[in-house]
């Protein structure tokens, strides 16, 4: 009897043990799996750790990773996507194709001077209305004589005083120069306080039309084209199209950030032997933003 009872107790215990084992089998398996993945994770992360060389002896077979350059970082796909910039300029267009390319791309293959001025603005324009700042300075003549540019980009045009001057100089020298004038033709907030005679039509300050009229007045419509975008967009467009220049004048926004950005974007568009120059290095506008932008640019390159 006792023997039978003992046998029953034993069977019961064995059954319980099996049940307990079954009950804990799953969690144990999970735990083992977790432990395995953790170990593998640690091993693989120690392989790619930036501090690898600090904790292990250097070997001759593994090359030491070099630090990425600013250019590498700026060209990371994530950066390009984030800032929506196109970094690579196209091959340079032959200079004789520059005007037609801009007409095609910006003016739907027509000239903005066709049937100019439009009837609804003609009575609001003056036959000629020029105003510039140092726009006839000796630097223009000096550089045009020296470089004999086929393409000039002016970054910041306003009413076109310096563009008209450059068009006259290139004509005198018998050069076939195209001058591309980049400006949003909005001036700056409050500019009409000083230019009350420039009319406004439905919020448009008519700067581009007056600029075009000024070109008509000196018969320079074949050699000058307005490019009516922000400086950033226009210079990027030139880069995409492969429009490079022999002379680039920078005279748009005079705060540090505008000048810095314009100078850097413009610099990429210089042809070999070309010259980048600008205005207001000595003026105190926005705490000498232009001067600071140039000094910082000079620190980065010795080619400017
Ligand atoms: C000082 S005026 C240019 C004068 C011209 N170079 C001259 O001497 O006859 C500056 C011009 O830059 C333009 N400008 C300023 N910031 C600009 C920007 N971010 N994009 C496009 N044009 C801009 C203004 O509309 C203004 O007409």
What can be said about this structure in brief?
The protein is of the alpha/beta class and 304 residues long.
Q: What is the CATH-assigned architecture of the domain at 94-300? A: 3-Layer(aba) Sandwich
Q: So what's the oligomer here?
A: single chain
Which of globular, elongated, flat, extended, rod-shaped describes the shape?
A: globular
Radius of gyration: 35 Å
What number is the mean pLDDT? 79
- Major pleated sheet: 5 strands, parallel
Fraction of residues in β-strands: 5-15%
Low-confidence stretches: 15-59
- Which sequence of strands runs across the widest sheet? 3-2-1-4-5
Strand tally, please? 5
CATH topology of the domain at 94-300: Rossmann fold
Helix percentage: 40-55%
Q: For the record, what CATH class of the domain at 94-300 applies?
A: Alpha Beta
| Helical run tally | 12
What can you see in these coordinates?
A five-stranded parallel sheet has the order 3-2-1-4-5, sandwiched between helices. The chain has helices at residues 2-48, 52-55, 70-74, 77-83, 98-106, 119-122, 138-147, 161-172, 207-217, 231-241, 256-267, 285-300; strands at residues 151-155, 178-182, 224-227, 245-250, 270-278. The chain is of the alpha/beta class and 304 residues long. β4 (245-250), α11 and β5 (270-278) form a beta-alpha-beta unit. 49% of the residues lie in helices and 10% in strands. It has a domain at 94-300: Rossmann fold. The radius of gyration is 35 Å and the shape is globular. Mean pLDDT is 79; it is low at 15-59. Bound molecules: S-adenosylmethionine (SAM).
